Amino acid sequence: MLKLFSAFRKNKIWDFNGGIHPPEMKTQSNGTPLRQVPLAQRFVIPLKQHIGAEGELCVSVGDKVLRGQPLTRGRGKMLPVHAPTSGTVTAIAPHSTAHPSALAELSVIIDADGEDCWIPRDGWADYRSRRREELIERIHQFGVAGLGGAGFPTGVKLQGGGDKIETLIINAAECEPYITADDRLMQDCAAQVVEGIRILAHILQPREILIGIEDNKPQAISMLRAVLADSHDISLRVIPTKYPSGGAKQLTYILTGKQVPHGGRSSDIGVLMQNVGTAYAVKRAVIDGEPITERVVTLTGEAIARPGNVWARLGTPVRHLLNDAGFCPSADQMVIMGGPLMGFTLPWLDVPVVKITNCLLAPSANELGEPQEEQSCIRCSACADACPADLLPQQLYWFSKGQQHDKATTHNIADCIECGACAWVCPSNIPLVQYFRQEKAEIAAIRQEEKRAAEAKARFEARQARLEREKAARLERHKSAAVQPAAKDKDAIAAALARVKEKQAQATQPIVIKAGERPDNSAIIAAREARKAQARAKQAELQQTNDAATVADPRKTAVEAAIAR
Fold first, then answer.
1. Is the peptide bond before 244 cis (omega within 30 degrees of 0)?
2. Interval 370-426: pLDDT, tens
3. Alpha carbon 167 to chain centroid distance?
4. Domain check: are 155 and 299 in the same one?
5. The domain spanning residue 284 has which CATH number?
6. Domain that holds residue 195
7. What is the C-alpha to C-alpha distance for residues 482 and 471, in angstroms, rounded to an integer?
8. How far is Cα 394 from Cα 284, in angstroms, rounded to an integer?
């Protein structure tokens, strides 16, 4: 009975609150195999394609580079980027990137030579003989980041997990409509994905390994089951289709029943999650010796003649990918990077593909419907019912609109995963996620300003304390100098006092004259005679000088002669 209960619990799944069931729209792109895209003529590689600071440049304009060659150095949490093909570095300058406002970021621009030559590749087929630290460092230096979300450096994430990870979860849910990149990757490269999972498991040594996949991917499920037929250490869990079951906190709860604490991380409860694409990139980095230079991107939407999934080199302009897929834009055509719920509209199409680009959606004019005018909130609470994070979106909306940052923080706006479920169900067509993103950005700016102010205050107080210490030290030195003379002054004063005392002693010493004896004044008389002789000599010298002056002046002599006559 106990074994039966344990087996039941082993395969048990939980359900999170909220969620929605939008049209999936996945059949447009998941039915055709992965294909390669012809190389673009020019590649734009932003230095920052992950969470964290950009790396330090290690190439210069005019350098010849090979595919896989590092363009930046990865130190600490800085993740390096690599050349997607062989060619020449023609510029290092700011360039518009994948951002809602096309913000310019420092990028390396490479003109391809068409050879597509790799660097020498050194694979570690015997990775099990390598130390954990070696594997993590290799994954980091080969530029592997989370390919399913924000792009957190995988090596840093593995290092932070340490020895406390009990459950390794592989996120294969891919719950957002239209996106099928992970689905197609599992169908075409299931064995490589599983090999990457085994490398992650070798590093973390978890107690259990779970793959969470939605039941709307039957072909991918079949391929994984075939690869895992003889494996007993990896468990494949098929979960009901519901958006956003692919969220990190939501999938963790679905598979384990554990909730990530507010303000905490999944590692706090012994869970670490990686994406399917990340596991595949780990396999290529460790076993094949290939840095991440490409990823799977879904090209879909009714404005694309040949939808599907392609291997897109990082740095490839979006326009190049769309044109290769038969892009037929309309007059007011929009292109969304990401899905319809969490993606954003690109302001122009010359931005490059980066590590977190999983989908390019080009809908027709009628596919997503006409944009509706925003109306007033009617307090229907539909958004609260749909929120998978158990928040109160209507309250957060009012706080965000009213600039009430403290109240928004108190109501846990930081826990919002920006899934868009609240905006999807809103009958007033309020773009709630846009309000929440702006509010979180403003709160972050305020916190950053407060941090800078606190640091400036600390620096000012430290400077004032240092100046006060220096002032006190100067006053102490002056007091010491006034009270205690210097050593040489003491010696001079002592010598002067000694001379005075000696003279006083000589002056007060009595002169003793014996009876019948005359005093000996010869020394005094001799000194007096010497002074007289010295005075006479000086007088004679002065007289000679005057006589010589008189002789030397003829006019004076003539005058004296005339007077004499």
1. yes
2. 778 999 999 999 999 999 999 999 999 999 999 999 999 999 999 999 999 999 999
3. 28
4. yes
5. 3.40.50.11540
6. 9-361
7. 17
8. 45
